[in-house]
Write a structure and sequence with these properties.
The longest helix has 17 residues. By secondary structure, the protein is of the alpha/beta class. The mean pLDDT is 93. Helices cover 29% and strands 20% of the residues. The protein starts with 23 loop residues before the first strand and ends with a helix. The strands form 4 sheets. A 5-stranded parallel beta sheet has the order 3-2-1-4-5, with helices on both faces. It has a 5-stranded parallel beta sheet with strand order 10-9-11-8-12, sandwiched between helices. It has a 5-stranded mixed beta sheet with strand order 13-14-17-15-16, with helices on both faces. The protein has 4 domains: 103 residues, NAD(P)-binding Rossmann-like Domain (Rossmann fold), CATH 3.40.50.720; 39 residues; 114 residues, Cobalt-precorrin-4 Transmethylase, domain 1 (3-Layer(aba) Sandwich); 120 residues, 2-Layer Sandwich (Methyltransferase, Cobalt-precorrin-4 Transmethylase, Domain 2). The structure holds S-adenosyl-L-homocysteine (SAH). The site of S-adenosyl-L-homocysteine has 24 residues, from helix 9 and strand 17. S-adenosyl-L-homocysteine (SAH) binds next to helix 9 and strand 17.
């Protein structure tokens, strides 16, 4: 007795990148597997035709905006007419076999989800970073492929794998305004990390996640562009000038800011300065402390049936100050959530103004100090007692305070 020898050629693949834009691809099946394949095919701008009596809600949502054609019926021989590529992803092996058979007859490459040995095409584990595409075939083991794919993506993200082409060929520098989130290094976006991984120079705020700086390679120049409240600070003009100067010298500059670059962060001024000097700028939004810091402390800024609005206000100047641009009387009448940034010193004046214009003195207030850091503190009080609480607890910036019924939810 001898085992049938397995043809070693069956496990060999020839990797290609199919350019499917505008080309018909037929997907048979309407479940989770089909959904994942369809999502990838749409990313490649394929002209997707879906054949299945039923589809998942997620697939149906893709049909609505007209990005694919859905034939709500079982597969029938002839469905692959005009197709460049096919996917057999039903939960019925017989249907999948029929699709594969038609594909072979028509010489259309076909990926059969339930039986790779019958597939003329194997789909790799795919990762994308900009226009860089990583596809990994795992020698028949999808977990292995996914593991290697993830490791490569992680390496590209943290810079341990250098993507040299990320540097423009003409040697031109650039600026990326990265929103670093409220302070925890885990709360920066993937794109933000990628930009840091390829930076030559990083200008960082004191509210940006400092631990991201410690993981930068030694050759990266880090410039302290902190603005301490009522303390030492780098002038905005100097920050703008440094961004432009380094970029014009051909360096990739990251401006790492706390929270989101455009929420009380003077990000637009930096963008304008770069634009005026002809320096290309990219904006990477971040998790703003206005929403993220209360959220981390267990306070949602909205809640169904409770508040249909939240307003984010800078408290750096108090009500009545000549430089104030805030309509405090209307905020006093506000029913929903009010989030105040840069408002530690001005809190008593702001609370008094809100009460004067109609907000109940016993409205709950939460103060979150040092959000997203190991020293994070949550203080609960009311509008009437806010000033006293801040004094008693010796609260120093950075702190966000939140006014409204949502504060009571987590109590
Ligand atoms: N662009 C930032 C805000 C800059 S203004 C953002 O989107 O988050 C600076 C103010 O943000 C601080 O005075 C404080 O009110 C708030 N803030 C930023 N980080 C914070 C943190 N980690 N904890 C509490 N408040 C924070």
């Amino acid at each position: 007795m001898s085992a049938t020898p397995v043809d070693p050629r069956l496990g060999v693949v020839y990797p290609v990148g199919l350019r499917l834009a505008g080309r018909r691809v037929v997907v048979v099946g309407g479940g989770q597997v089909a959904h994942r394949r369809v999502a990838g095919l749409l990313e490649a701008h394929a002209d997707v035709v879906l054949v299945s009596p039923e589809v998942t809600p997620a697939l149906e949502a893709l049909v609505q905006p007209g990005s694919l054609t859905w034939h709500a019926r079982p597969y029938a021989d002839g469905d692959l007419d005009g197709a460049w590529y096919a996917v057999a992803a039903t939960d019925d092996p017989e249907v999948n076999a029929a699709v594969t058979a038609e594909a072979d007859r028509m010489r259309v490459f076909c990926a059969r989800a339930d039986d790779r040995s019958q597939s003329s095409a194997w789909t790799p584990a795919v990762g994308r970073q900009g226009d860089l595409v990583v596809g990994v075939h795992g020698g028949g083991d999808p977990q292995r492929a996914v593991g290697v794919r993830d490791a490569v993506l992680a390496g590209l993200t943290d810079g341990t794998i250098a993507d040299t082409v990320a540097r423009p060929a003409d040697g031109r520098g650039s600026v990326v305004l990265v929103g670093g989130g409220p302070g925890d290094p885990g709360l920066v976006t993937v794109r933000g990390r990628q930009a840091l991984a390829t930076a030559d120079v990083v200008l960082a705020d004191h509210l940006a996640p400092q631990s991201l700086l410690s993981s930068l390679p030694a050759h990266v120049e880090v410039i302290d562009a902190s603005k301490l409240p009522r303390g030492r600070s780098m002038a905005q003009e100097q920050i703008n000038a440094l961004l432009v100067e380094h970029a014009l010298a051909g360096r990739r500059v990251v401006r790492l800011k706390g929270g989101d670059p455009f929420v009380f962060g003077r990000g637009w001024e930096e963008l304008e300065a770069c634009a005026a000097a002809g320096v290309p700028v990219e904006v990477v939004p971040g998790v703003t402390s206005a929403i993220g810091v209360p959220g981390l402390a267990g306070i949602p800024v909205t809640h169904r049936g409770m508040t249909h609005e939240f307003v984010v206000v800078s408290g750096h100047v108090p009500p009545g100050h000549p430089a104030s641009l805030v309509d405090w009387p209307s905020l006093g009448r506000l029913r929903g959530t009010l989030v105040v940034l840069m408002g530690v010193d001005t809190a008593p004046a702001i609370a008094a103004s809100l009460v004067e214009h109609g907000r109940a003195a016993d409205t709950p207030v939460a103060v979150v100090v040092d959000g997203a850091s190991p020293t994070q503190r949550l203080l609960r009080t009311t509008l009437a007692d806010l000033g006293q609480t801040l004094t008693d607890e010796a609260v120093r910036p950075p702190a966000v305070w939140v006014v409204g019924d949502v504060v009571a939810l987590g109590a």
